[in-house]
Structure formats: C-alpha cells, structure tokens
C-alpha cells in the first residue's frame, strides 16, 4: 500500500532550509516520492499552526522510511536542523474502495 509522508514545518532560517529542500527533493524523488502538497494555502483548524505543510506519496511505508534514513536525506536534514521546527509522520494510505 502507498504511504503519505506528512510534514508540518515552521522555517526559522530560509537560507539553510532552502539547502535542505534542494537536497531533500532529489532524495524523495529517488525513492519514488511524489509531492501532493508543498507549502500551499492551508486552513489550521486544530493544533499548532506551522505555515509550511508538505505531503508526498511513496510506493510504501517501508520505502518512505528508507528515504528518511537514506544518506542523501540525512544530508538534507542536517540543513533543516536548527533552521526549522518540524513534525514529520509517515502514514499508510487506506486501499481504494471496491466499486
């Protein structure tokens, strides 16, 4: 089953975070990740509001986790640490309903 990588981010250092985004984009694509949402408009209804929200779909939960743990993504993450406040979760999607 496919899985969604959902990140809620408050960027505190735009320059460093842009380095993260450049490297992370390649790492995510290399693992079959496809962006569904990337910092667009949003409405915060509950919880902590973080202005940057990112959703990417991966072929599976295992592939999404492997992406996170990959050397390329860890390199990207080194630029995000200290440059952002982030929450990240990977959630398996429900299968499509049979018609």
From TrEMBL:
It comes from the Bacteria. SUPFAM superfamilies: Dimeric alpha+beta barrel. Pfam families: DUF1330. InterPro entries: Dimeric_a/b-barrel, DUF1330. Residues 2-94 form the DUF1330 domain. This is DUF1330 domain-containing protein.
